[in-house]
Design a protein that fits this description.
Elements lengths: L14 E6 L14 E3 L2 E3 L14 E6 L3 E6 L3 E6 L4 H4 L9 E4 L3 E5 L5 E5 L17 E7 L2 E6 L4 E5 L15 E6 L3 E6 L4 E5 L17 E4 L3 E5 L5 E5 L15 E6 L3 E6 L4 E7 L2 E3 L14 E6 L3 E6 L10 H7 L12 H7 L19 E3 L3 E3 L4 E7 L9 E7 L7 E3 L2 E3 L5 H8 L6 E2 L2 E3 L6 E7 L11 E9 L6 E4 L3 E6 L1
Parallel strand pairs: 26-36
Antiparallel strand pairs: 1-24, 2-3, 4-5, 5-6, 7-8, 8-9, 10-11, 11-12, 13-14, 14-15, 16-17, 17-18, 19-20, 20-21, 21-22, 23-24, 25-27, 27-33, 28-32, 28-34, 29-30, 31-33, 34-35, 34-36
Length: 498
């Protein structure tokens, strides 16, 4: 049973760990290795589980005996025990954003907002052949031989076999933000955090649904359900098989929930995992999952199959021996852009840049160089006014504006820094003709306010041969005595139109 994980937990690259309980009659090909911790068992590999050394997974989901995942670049993966069609017809190409597994099929969301289904379709079924066309979808879910998708307006699309009314009685209207469905019942979160429920009420999953608003997550199992309140506490309802309801952990600090056939798993804000209920007859007690070392609690997403669990670990991108999740939550690493990746790793990977070398990501601070416009007409003429705000401690140092007609990459090395301009004839012109047209105040001293300005002036009715050109300008800050390069700014484009 797949549930839709909150995508806000998945903005970093992760490695995948598969958790499961020992099956009553394991398939030989699964090469099951059992490790006991209290009354919990987990095993790996899981009939082709990707190597734990692979560290580019960004999303995981569980089906009935198999798992699906998304790797960096949006490429799909699937493994486990199911019909061959599920594994030999995985859609190729990247850009996928979400994926979910049902009984013998899987469903994925493309980067364009479209849907793709694959796997095995039982005779007379429509779970694959009936997949909606078009775009505008934002998340997917699957259970049994049915599929569900959220549209951009928050409405729910449902198709396939309507086990216990999960398809035919799916709620109409808009404004839903999350959907979780099992073989018997479905739940959806409304925009106010209230829960809508439908399907079979044989186990009280519909009438037992908590009232009120402010819920952040909800998950449906085969006979029980669980929801996450705004304060991080949990509430469970339905049939209490093997304590799956009565053994729900108390307290707060949880951030995600997932449910299987008769088990539940919850993710703590600390990165720890707690499970309870039963998987294949093995009782599960409340358990903080720890791997690699007793202090390890670095998971960022959880999902449930009907009889197994799968979780996503945080990576250690800087190689300091501490999970990135731990570094970020303890404040040992900065994350100024909020993408759940240490800033140092953003720089190393090229995801972010620090052009001026001030130790801060450029996407987290106002750019050093700003302009009032980025386009001028050669017919009408005009001015581009550029303002430089250099780093601290540069009082009475000098500034120099440099231009380029050949772009910003790969740039020009200036010692330890790189000027984000390709040096060309226009660059040389701006250096040899300081404070002259078309650039005024292109060279000078930084004054008390530390803010300096420069203008690019274009007279009216200028030569139309310039139409279509793009000029780039950037400031260089120089030591007031030695003229050594202290800082470079971001580039500012100027597009010349008719």
């Amino acid at each position: 049973m797949a549930i839709l994980a909150r995508r806000s937990l998945l903005l970093a690259q992760h490695s995948v760990l598969v958790l499961a309980a020992l099956a009553a009659s394991p398939v030989v090909a699964q090469q099951v290795e059992v490790v006991t911790h209290d009354t919990i068992c987990y095993w790996s590999p899981h009939n082709g589980t990707p190597s734990l050394q692979v560290s580019d997974f960004t999303h995981v989901g569980g089906g009935d005996g198999f798992s699906v995942a998304i790797r960096a670049g949006g490429f799909l993966a699937a493994w486990g025990q199911s019909f061959p069609q599920l594994f030999n017809s995985i859609p190729s190409g990247g850009g996928f954003l979400d994926a979910a597994g049902g009984e013998a099929h899987a469903l994925a969301l493309s980067g364009s907002g479209g849907l793709v289904s694959w796997g095995y379709e039982f005779f007379g079924g429509t779970v694959i052949s009936g997949t909606p066309t078009g775009v505008g979808y934002t998340a997917v879910e699957a259970a049994g031989s049915a599929s569900f998708a959220l549209r951009a307006d928050g409405s729910i699309a449902a198709w396939g076999e309507s086990d216990h009314g999960t398809v035919t009685s799916a709620p109409g209207g808009t404004g839903y933000s999350h959907v979780s469905v099992s073989l018997h019942a479905g739940h959806a979160l409304r925009s106010d955090g209230s829960i809508a429920s439908w399907g079979s009420d044989a186990f009280g999953q519909v009438t037992g649904t908590p009232t009120g608003t402010g819920f952040l997550d909800v998950a449906a199992g085969d006979g029980h359900s669980v929801a996450l309140r705004a304060d991080g506490s949990l509430v469970s309802w339905g049939v209490d098989a093997n304590g799956v309801v009565s053994n729900t952990p108390s307290g707060t600090g949880f951030v995600q929930v997932s449910a299987g056939s008769s088990h539940t798993v919850a993710l703590r804000a600390s990165g720890g995992i707690e499970t309870w209920g039963e998987v294949y007859g093995i009782s599960c007690s409340s358990w903080l999952l720890e791997i690699a070392s007793p202090s390890s609690a670095d998971f960022v997403q959880i999902a449930s199959g009907r009889q197994h669990l799968v979780a996503l670990r945080s990576p250690d991108c800087d190689g300091n021996g501490v999970a990135d999740y731990t570094d970020l939550t303890t404040g040992a690493a900065a994350d100024c852009n909020g993408n759940f990746v240490p800033d140092s790793c953003d720089l190393a990977s090229g995801y972010s840049i620090d052009i001026d070398g001030d130790g801060q990501l450029d996407d987290c601070v106002a750019p050093r160089l700003q302009a009032n416009t980025y386009e001028l007409s050669v017919s009408a003429g005009g001015k581009q006014e550029m303002t430089l705000t250099p780093g601290p401690g540069l009082f009475l140092d000098r500034f120099l504006m440099v231009g380029s007609l050949s772009g910003t990459s790969p740039g020009t090395p200036l010692g330890a820094l790189t000027l984000p301009l390709n040096f060309d004839g226009y660059s040389l012109h701006t250096i040899l003709n300081i404070n002259k047209a078309p650039l005024s105040n292109s060279f000078g001293y930084l004054v008390t306010s530390q803010t300096s300005s420069c203008e690019f002036s274009l007279p009216p009715a200028f030569d139309p041969v310039l139409v279509g050109m793009t000029l780039q300008h950037a400031f260089v800050t120089l030591d007031g005595v030695s003229l050594a390069v202290l800082e470079v700014s971001n580039p500012i484009p100027l597009h010349l139109t008719l």
